[in-house]
Amino acid sequence: MQQPDLKERIILGIDPGTAVMGYGLVKETGRKMELISMGVVKMGAIDDHMLKLQRIFEKTVNLIDQYHPDCLAIEAPFYGKNIQVMLKLGRAQGIAMAAALSRNVSITEYSPRKIKQAITGNGNATKEQVAAMLQTLLSFKETPEFLDATDGLAVAVCHSFQKINTGAGKGSAKKSYSGWETFVKDNTDRVSGIGKKKPI
């Protein structure tokens, strides 16, 4: 029996960077999730840091105006040894967030470890492992030129995993998942074919 008034939500995920910014968009319809788009914004040819930030702002606004996402999920800058790199990443993230705020889009931030944990069940997973799991989850075969694209997509999928709307109509509760294992238990229809289910 088809559920009435299935809730739809479009999530924009961004992996900010000053050389390459990755992005991905997914659409939730009830408990189903599908890939809309993913890609990268290259800024390697731009020498001026301020012009790179302008490009990030403009591209983020363009993505929002084109796809009308309900929310933005963004990766937090990781803590590295090079403080200058971290400052630049922080600026890139802030500019993308400002672009979303300029269009009244809500924002949620996730740490790199949280994103990897949500997608693969392993907070130390490689970019390649994250990309492979996303290919299985969202049924796409093409391998992006840059893994930054799947990094951006991973942020969107991570956000989807946190609160899944059941689409049960008025008063339907959103459920939070603490990790990959609990999500799989409650969503076998969404992740069919990913490994073998353990006997309970």
> SS-based structural class?
alpha/beta
Helix content: 40-55%
| Oligomer category | single chain
**Lateral arrangement of strands in the main beta sheet:** 3-2-1-4-5
> Could you give the count of β-strands?
7
CATH architectural category: 2-Layer Sandwich
Mean pLDDT: 83
Note the total helix count. 6
In CATH, the topology is named Nucleotidyltransferase, domain 5
Helix-strand topology string = EEEHEHEHHHEEH
| CATH homology group | Ribonuclease H-like superfamily/Ribonuclease H
Indicate the overall shape.
Answer: globular
Question: How large is the radius of gyration?
Answer: 17 Å
Beta-strand residue percentage: 15-25%
Sheet bearing the most strands, described? Answer: 5 strands, mixed
Distance between the termini: 28 Å
Number of domains: 1
CATH first level: which class? Answer: Alpha Beta
Low-confidence runs (pLDDT<50, min 5 residues)?
A: 164-179, 192-200
Structure description:
The chain is of the alpha/beta class and 200 residues long. The protein has one domain: Nucleotidyltransferase, domain 5 (2-Layer Sandwich). 42% of the residues lie in helices and 22% in strands. It contains 6 helices and 7 strands; from the N terminus they run E-E-E-H-E-H-E-H-H-H-E-E-H. The protein has helices at 49-67, 83-102, 112-120, 127-138, 147-162, 180-186; strands spanning 8-15, 20-29, 32-42, 71-75, 106-110, 163-165, 174-176. The strands form 2 sheets. Strands 3-2-1-4-5 form a 5-stranded mixed beta sheet. A hairpin with an 8-residue loop joins strand 6 (163-165) and strand 7 (174-176). The longest helix is centred in the middle third of the chain and has 20 residues, at 83-102. The model is unreliable at 164-179 and 192-200 (pLDDT under 50).
